[in-house]
Known about the structure:
Layout: E1 2-5, H1 10-17, H2 26-35, E2 39-46, E3 49-57, H3 64-69, E4 75-81, H4 91-105, E5 110-116, H5 120-128, E6 132-144, E7 150-163
Parallel strand pairs: 4-5
Antiparallel strand pairs: 1-2, 2-3, 3-4, 5-7, 6-7
Helix pairs in contact: 1-2
Amino acid sequence: MEIAVCGPDDVALLDRHIGSSGALSFHARRFARQERGESTYLVAWLDERPVGHAEVRWIGCDAREVRDARPGCPEINGLGVRPQELRSRGIGTALVLAAEELVRERGITVVGLGVAKDNPRAADLYTRLGYEPLTDYYDRWTYEDDQGRLRDCVDACTFLIKDLC
């Protein structure tokens, strides 16, 4: 497996192999943020096929509660591994560790990530990797469904942080 920064040609492969809906895909939106310097979008590759992704948002979490609790904290966001059969094989861990290394390279000593309260499997992974709870918040996001309609979502989450010193 290899972890690499997303390139312009990777977006279509991500859409094809991992999936996304709407006129501007999940992956295209993340790549656009990377192009603006707001984030770095990492892709996990296995046998020349994308199997996972994670975004380091240098601008931090959108939630005011998180920004107030830990100003300037970069966020690891959008961690995913697909297909599902590849979960629990170290891909998510490798993406988080690669993201942490990017944060360290910038001289930043803390990083955070959000986990939905109904996702104990992910919470267990983050705890094993040394993340600790900072604050609860509601993650609000929008996506475009297959019929082109915008859908608003709200997830109850906990923001976790890790000291990288």
